[in-house]
Amino acid sequence: MTEPGAPVVDPLTPADLVRCAEIEQELFAADSPWPLSGFVSELNAAHTTYFAVRTVAGAPVAGYAGISVLGRPGDHECEVHTIAVASEYQGRGYGRVLMDALLRVADASEAPVFLEVRTDNDPAVGLYKSNGFEVTGIRRNYYQPSGADAFTMVRAARTEFAEGHTNS
Q1: How far apart are the first and last CA of the chain?
Q2: CA-to-CA distance for 28 and 87, rounded, in angstroms?
Q3: Signal peptide span per the entry (predicted)?
């Protein structure tokens, strides 16, 4: 059950995509933000799962996140495609609840999770590290056209034992 006042996470829908493109433009204008058509394509891809976070059920999107599950069953890998929270909602835990939703998808597949993040995005790097991600490398000039570098990060697969303990 959701706590009163807690953000609501639900599946991203086609009706949400215009707002996602607006948030994308606001946050990533210097680094080729995804256009509306990119969101449509991602939402329709069979191997991706996208979530919205809202202030309350039925409210406009305050943030969004997506993850892909790739590979054969028993040998899956996951990749975080995007996670973004509109600036007016940042610092309220919305990114954390989106990350939790993404990691549930990965954990259901017992898959490691990969992502890239700007090296200067301290809040995001902190969020990822607090969720068990480790920096594995740097991609120079990854973000274009700004030329910003990205950390590559990975979180090892999590598996459930019969006793209900998690192994990382």
Answers
A1: 27
A2: 11
A3: none
